[in-house]
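> @MW can you paste both from yesterday?
MW: sure, first one:
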Amino acid sequence: MQNDKAYKGQWEKRWHPLRREWVVYAAHRNYRPWNFDIKENKPVFPEYDPECYLCPGNTRVSGLVNPDYKDVFIFDNDHPVVGLHSPVIDESLALLHNGLYKRSKAEGIARVLCYDPRHNVTLSDVSREQAAKVFQALRSEMIFFLKHDKIKSVLIFENKGEIVGVSNPHPHCQIYSTDFVFNVVQKELLATEQYRKEKKQNIFQNIIEAEQKDEIRIIAENKNAIAFVPFFARFAYETYVFPKKRHATLATMNDEELFGLAEVFQTVTKKFDANFKSSFPYVMAFAQAPVDAGNYEDYHMHLIICPPLRQPGLPKFLAGPETGADTFMADTMPEEKAAELRKIIL
C-alpha cells in the first residue's frame, strides 16, 4: 500500500458551493500520460445538405419550409418538449394517492436557434461578430420571455457532437422555457441565499475572485468576461464562463458585454478543439435566474460547458455514484485539465 504522500493532490473531495454537495476526486486512478497519438477527428460535412431540416430553404418534418436565411434563424420546435398547446390534464387525474403523485400540463415554449446558414461550421468557427449576433439574438429571446405571463424559467443549451446525442450537426442550440424553475437554478438560488445569510457576501463574486486569486484554473479572460475550470468541477474540462458584471439573465447585458462573453466562449471552445485536434463535443447551458418577476439581484448568470470526454476517445460515464447516488466522482483534477488548456496559444 502506497503512503498518503503518493496520492497528495490526486485524491480528495471538494465542496461544490453552488450545488452544496461534495465532489470526490480520485485522479490517481487515471494519472498517466497519453502514450498514443491524438488523431485528427474532424467530420467533413458539406456547406449545404439537402437532407438537413435546418439548412436554408429545406422542408422541416412539420412541412414548413425554412426561409433562405443568411444570418441567425429562430423557429418554434416542430417536436416540442413543452408547449402552450400541450394537452390539458383532467382534474380527476391531476392528484393521485392523496396528492402523493401529481401531474400537470407540460406548458412552455420550445424553440430552435440556428447559428449560421452553413451546415459545416460550429459556433467556434464563425466570426466573433457572428457569435455576438447569436448572443444578441438570445438576449432578444430572454427579453420576450421576461414579459411572458406563462414562463417562469428559460434554459438555453447546445448539445454538440454525436457522443452527447445530437441528431443534427447543423450549428444550433435549443431554448426550453417552462412554467416552473429548472432544478440547477433552484439549487444555485438556494446556495446564493444561504451564502448571503452566512457570509453577508455574494457567492458568485467570491467564486470569481477566488479563481482570479488562484489564477491556475483560468483559461480565458478579457475586460468583460472570464472563463475557468472551477475548483469544484465535476467533469474533466468543465468550464464556467461569466460576464464580469453581474446580470441575472442575458436580457440586461449590453452589446459590448455580449461581444466580450462571445469572445471568451470562442476562446474556450477553440482551445478544446486544439487540445484534442478535433471538433470537441460538449453540452453547454446558460444558467439564468427565473423570469417570474422576482428579485434576483444576487444571481449572476453564467455559461456551464460540460465536455463528456476525459481523454481522447474516453468518455466520462455517469455510472454507479453519479446515477445511483447523485454524487460525482471524477478521475481527473481541475488543475490538471486547466493546465492543458492554459498552455494552448491560439
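MW: second:
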Amino acid sequence: MLLWLVVAYLLVSIGIGLLAAAKVHNTRDYITAGRHLPMAVVLAMVFATWFGAETVLGISATFLEEGLLGLISDPFGAGICLMLFGLFFARPLYRMNMLTLGDFFRKRYNRGTELTLSLCIVISYLGWVAAQVTALGLVFNVLSQGNISSNEGMIIGAAVVLLYTLFGGMWSVAVTTFVQMIVIVLGLAYVAWIAGDMAGGFSAVIGRAAAEGKLDFFPALEAREILPWIAAFFTMALGSIPQQDVFQRVNSSRNERVAVWGTTLGGAIYILFAAVPMFLAYTAQIIDPEMVKQLMEKDSQMILPTLIMNHMSFATQVIFFGALLSVIMSTASGTLLAPSVTFSENVLKGSMPWMSDRQFLWCSRIMVVVFTILVTLYAVSTHSSIHKMVENAYRITLAGAFVPLTAGLFWKCANNLGATLSIGLGLGVWVLCELLVPEGDIEPQLYGLVASAVGMLGGSLLGAKQLPKQSTPFETKNEPLGTLGMSEPGIKA
C-alpha cells in the first residue's frame, strides 16, 4: 500500500511537470522560464535543489559518525556558497542576460576558455546527480521490501525525473519544485516532531548530542585537523559558485531583487533546515541504538528509512517517504537540466552556430536524455556514499573555474592569458596532486586553487591589457539574446 501511494505521488509530480511544459515555446522558456519567476518560487528552487538526497540520507549518517565537525562542507559550505552567490555574483550576472555561465567565459575571455570550463562544469555534475539517482534506488528498494533492487530503483527513479524535465525544462522544474518544497518542509517537520517525542523530547535529544560531542563545530588546533576542515569548506563554498544550476535559478528570476534575495535567503534557510535530518538521525540513536550500530557498519544511509519503517505509523511513513522523494526529485530535475543545457549551448552550439532556436531546443532535450543515461550508469557502477559523491563533485570547478569567473567579474585586468594560465595551472596542479599526494595534509584541490590564482595574477599582469568586448557586468543592463544563440526571427529579448 505504501509503495502504491508513493507511485501515485510520482504520477502527480509527472502530471504537474507536463502541465507546466505547456509554457515552453522557445529556448528561453526552456532554460530560464522566460525570466518570469517570483520570489517564492526562486527561493523554493534554490532551497529544494540543494536540499537533496545527501542532506537527508548523507548528512544525517555523517552526523552520527563525525558530528558537526564532519559537515563543514555540506550543509555549511553549501549554504554559504548560495549566500555568497546571491550577495556578490547574482546581480552582475543577472544583468548580462545570458543562458549559461559558459556564455560569460566566451564573452569575457574566448572560445577556448568557454569550451574548457563548460566541460569542467558538466563533469562536476556527474557525482551530484548520481547521488540523487542512488538515493532513488535506495527508496524504491526499501518501499518494495527488496522486491525492487537498488539498481532497478535507480532506473525507475531516473526515468520519472527525466520525463517531466525533458519536456518542461525550467518551467517544469520551477512548478514541481515549489510543490515539493511544501511537502519537504511540512513532512520532515512533522516526522521530526514525532521522532522527538519518541526519543524523550527536543531538549533531551539536543542535550545528549551535545554531551557526546556531536555539536562540536571547530577542529582541534592542529594542522592535520584544520587543513582538511578548511579544504572541505572551500571545496563546497567556492567550488559550487561556478555552477550552472545556481546561475539558472538566478537567471530565471523576474528581476534583480528576486535574483539576489531569493538566492541569499534560500542559502540561509538551507543551513537552518538541514538541522532536521541531523535531529532525526540522533533520535534513531536513542530510539533503536542496536539498529543504528548494525547499519553504521553495513550502510549508514539506511538509518533514517529503517527507523521510519520499523518504528513509525503508516501515516508517518507515507509523509516521510513523500518528503524524501520530493527532496530527491527536486534536486535531480534541476541538476539534470543544468549540465545538459551547458553542453548544448557552449559545446554543440559553438560548433554549429547555424542551429535555429527550435533545433537548439530539441538538441537540449536530447542532451537531457543522454546525461540521464550517463549518470544512471555512473550511479549503478560506483560504490561511494551519497555524501562523498556530492563532496567530491566540486573539486574540478574549484581548481579550474572559480578564479576565472571571479576575476572576470571583479577585476578589469583579467585577460585571456591570465584565464589560460589559471585554468591550465589550476587543473594541472590539482590532477598532479591527486595522483601523487591524494592523502596529504592539504587537499589536492586547494593546491589547484592557489595555482589557479597565481596563473590568473601572473598572466593578467604580464600579458597585454585586454578590456572586455562588452562593458563590464556592472554597467551592462540587458544584452540582446541574439548574441547568445537566440536570434531566430520572432524571438525577442
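> thanks! The mean pLDDT is 85.
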